[in-house]
Structures are given as structure tokens and as C-alpha cells.
Amino acid sequence: MSITTLSSREFNRDASRAKKAARNGPVFITDRGRASHVLLTIEEYQRITGNQASLVEALAMPGIADIEFEPPRLSDDLYRPADLS
């Protein structure tokens, strides 16, 4: 794995170079000499994040309407009026 560093100007001029470099490792993009962004391939990103689906993706999956879900009702003693004085 190799690490590539590009200035934001270099990245803007040649994004395809950055994408090719990301196949071999992370590409750090700098802004005024300080790292500000990292470019990764989607496979590397999924490996790092554990390939976990987001809540939105989970709720959009086919068949979700067929899953029964009845959350328990909260008892009334958990509520009390807010004192806004």
C-alpha cells in the first residue's frame, strides 16, 4: 500500500490521477499544506467501515413492510410537564 499526497490544486487539475493512485492506497489532499481530505476506493472504504448499511439503506431494503414491529408503549409515569418558568 502506498500513500499519495496531492495539493487541492493538483487534485482539481488531474482527478483521474488521484483516482488511479487511490487503487494503491489512500490519497491525502492538502489545503495550504495541511491534509484536509482523503480519497479511497469504495472497496477500501467499505472494508474500513465494516460494510455496514446505514439506517436509510436498511429501511429501504425490499420486504421491510413485511416485518412485524410493535414497540412497547411507555408508561404515563415517565412523562411530566416541563417547567418553563
TrEMBL record:
Q: Which SUPFAM superfamilies match?
A: YefM-like
Q: Which InterPro entries match?
A: Antitoxin_Phd/YefM, YefM-like_sf
This protein's source sits in the domain of life called Bacteria
Disordered: region residues: 1-23
- Protein family (similarity comment): Belongs to the phD/YefM antitoxin family.
Cited function? Antitoxin component of a type II toxin-antitoxin (TA) system.
Protein name (Swiss-Prot/TrEMBL): Antitoxin
Q: Which organism is it from?
A: Nitrococcus mobilis Nb-231
